[in-house]
Write a sequence for this structure.
């Protein structure tokens, strides 16, 4: 260095500052050329460095509006404002801001995001032909879905840490889950082909799926189908993985139900691959992959999805409407035979569904799962999901949120509040000259109870007209006043209020108090249990629900004999008996709260997309949302491993 400095000094002294200027320009040119060569030689598929100082939080904040149903115009304005007002804005922000503002902006955005590290490991949405209704009649159009086996494999190969979090929870968790599943027993476990073909329980990922519709653009409705592992307890975006969305007005209304048949055929095909743990040899239509037909899948056919890890069907969730329509249930709440698990009937005396005791005669008519499957797979119209390996009718799980919170409690709580707001001396416990004044007093009492127990949410102010609307013969409270979670906690309030001395002055008041105390006690059992109920928990839950339902029935019978429209009994009361006795699962661990949350998120995404391309655009926006989330999680998990 000393020699170089001496020579450099002599050159400057002899030839002056002009030579120095030329030397500096030459050095700058050489450095620029070296930088361009480095960029040119950088491999296109260089491994992702999740530990690089990339500000994913900023990018997530910028892209969050579009992931919540925001407009592209808002994203453009935001990125341009950041670039204009911030020197050295993040390179990713600059790239978005430089995109042309046009009707093709979103297409440009998704092309860009597909090349970013947070979306590179996501599988491409699968495109397939599907019959849809148009104004010109039924037409075969393209539809898109995220195949479960593709996502399962992609996450495994990108990050085992993330795979373990989303699907297994670790080997110990998987072994314990299957140990408890074996204790519960039943022919679902004994006959499951995946359990027989994969002896290593640590590599069997139990999965469930859910479907539901929700109001979308205008008066339109969309169907959202999700799936995920049931071995882990995670937030919505990690446990409810989107398969596809469909606008129900596009459903072709023909006897062979072509639209839904194709949608579920694709899902069943992917679940079969997930169950074998291998990439399929042929597509959902049975056409073998080749160099010309899905060449990217032809290269992977027969290879392992995740080094021996596979999926095992565990449960199908949804409200009664979706279950009935999806599986073409001949016995459902709209028929005289109200239940697909037994022969409970609306009018036949010995089979009356209003007999809630565990010794009821309809308990002797429980279906055999193999006979049920044989009958439903030989019908004219067969749901493709019945052919998912391990499918079992006793894993079509009644959802306790729709059954109890948005069913039994809506009627029972309203009837009880109607009785408690009667005048003093006629069964009421609140002071007031009119019904509304007594409801106001009841709300003050309830509000104080909420404050005393430090509850996070509460009902809106009580209005008598909302609890028993004109033309509504039986009292009922709807979600506009109490959401499902609030109704669940309202049970504890009613258990306390119904036991006040003035409320139990009569035999009817005592029966009412027993009912709510038993409902509350059953909820305590579920809150303290894991995914599966042990023998004592199961026995306790059966006792509490049986006592509560028998008391409810006694109140309904007495009301009918007095010509009072109180305590309406609906088929959901019968479903609660099956929930307690026949599944062995903790109902609150299979409920649809998170599923409903995911449907709401997808609804917002769908509303922001053009209807013509919504089936693809929703999935692309979904990839941005979870891709950023999971990229941050991968970094966190990998950093935690070294600290």
């Amino acid at each position: 260095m000393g020699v170089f400095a001496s020579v450099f000094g002599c050159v400057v002294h002899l030839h002056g500052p002009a030579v120095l200027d030329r030397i500096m320009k030459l050095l700058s040119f050489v450095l620029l050329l070296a930088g361009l060569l480095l960029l040119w030689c950088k491999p296109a598929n260089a491994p992702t460095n999740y530990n690089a100082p990339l500000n994913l939080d900023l990018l997530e904040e910028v892209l969050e509006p579009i992931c919540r149903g925001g407009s592209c115009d808002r994203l453009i304005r935001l990125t341009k404002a950041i670039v204009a007002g911030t020197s050295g804005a993040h390179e990713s922000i600059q790239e978005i801001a430089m995109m042309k503002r046009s009707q093709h902006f979103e297409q440009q955005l998704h092309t860009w995001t597909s090349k970013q590290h947070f979306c590179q490991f996501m599988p491409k949405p699968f495109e397939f032909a599907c019959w849809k209704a148009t104004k010109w009649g039924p037409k075969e159009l393209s539809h898109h879905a995220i195949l479960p086996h593709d996502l399962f494999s992609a996450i495994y190969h990108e990050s085992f840490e993330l795979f373990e979090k989303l699907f297994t929870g670790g080997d110990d968790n998987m072994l314990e889950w299957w140990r408890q599943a074996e204790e519960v027993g039943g022919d679902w476990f004994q006959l499951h082909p995946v359990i027989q073909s994969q002896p290593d329980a640590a590599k069997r990922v139990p999965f469930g799926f859910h479907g539901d519709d929700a109001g979308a653009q205008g008066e339109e409705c969309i169907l959202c189908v999700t799936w995920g592992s049931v071995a882990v307890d995670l937030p919505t975006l990690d446990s409810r993985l989107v398969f596809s969305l469909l606008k129900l007005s596009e459903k072709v209304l023909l006897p062979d139900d072509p639209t839904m048949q194709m949608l579920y055929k694709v899902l069943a095909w992917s679940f079969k691959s997930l169950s074998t743990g291998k990439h399929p040899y042929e597509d959902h239509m049975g056409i073998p992959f080749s160099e010309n037909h899905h060449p990217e899948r032809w290269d992977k056919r027969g290879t392992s999805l995740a080094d021996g890890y596979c999926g095992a069907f565990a449960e199908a969730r949804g409200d009664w409407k979706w279950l009935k329509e999806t599986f073409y249930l001949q016995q459902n709440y709209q028929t005289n035979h109200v239940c697909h698990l037994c022969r409970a009937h609306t009018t036949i005396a010995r089979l009356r569904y209003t007999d809630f005791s565990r010794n009821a005669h309809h308990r002797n008519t429980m279906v055999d799962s193999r006979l049920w499957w044989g009958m439903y797979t030989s019908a004219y119209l067969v749901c493709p999901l019945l052919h998912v390996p391990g499918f079992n009718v006793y894993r079509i799980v009644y959802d306790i949120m729709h059954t109890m919170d948005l069913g039994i409690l809506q009627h029972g709580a309203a009837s009880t509040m109607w009785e408690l707001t009667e005048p003093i001396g006629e069964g009421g416990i609140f002071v007031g000259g009119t019904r509304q004044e007594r409801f106001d007093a009841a709300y003050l009492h309830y509000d104080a109870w909420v404050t005393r127990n430090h509850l996070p949410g509460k009902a809106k102010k009580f209005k008598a007209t909302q609890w028993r609307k004109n033309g509504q013969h039986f009292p009922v409270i709807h979600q506009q006043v109490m959401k499902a979670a609030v109704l669940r906690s309202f049970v504890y309030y009613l258990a306390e209020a119904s036991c006040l001395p003035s409320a139990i002055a009569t035999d009817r008041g005592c029966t009412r108090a027993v009912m709510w105390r038993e409902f509350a006690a059953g909820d305590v059992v579920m809150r303290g249990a894991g995914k599966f109920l042990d023998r004592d928990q199961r026995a306790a839950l059966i006792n509490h629900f049986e006592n509560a339902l028998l008391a409810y029935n006694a109140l309904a019978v007495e009301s009918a004999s007095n010509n009072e429209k109180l305590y309406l009994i609906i088929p959901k009361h019968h479903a609660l008996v099956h929930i307690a006795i026949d599944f062995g699962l903790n109902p609150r661990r299979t409920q649809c709260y998170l599923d409903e949350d995911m449907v709401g998120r997808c609804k917002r995404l769908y509303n922001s997309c053009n209807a013509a391309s919504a089936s693809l655009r929703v999935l692309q926006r979904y990839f941005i949302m979870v891709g950023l989330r999971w990229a941050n999680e991968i970094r966190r998990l990998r950093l935690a491993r070294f600290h």
In short: Residues 38-54 have pLDDT under 50 and may be disordered. The longest helix spans residues 614-641.
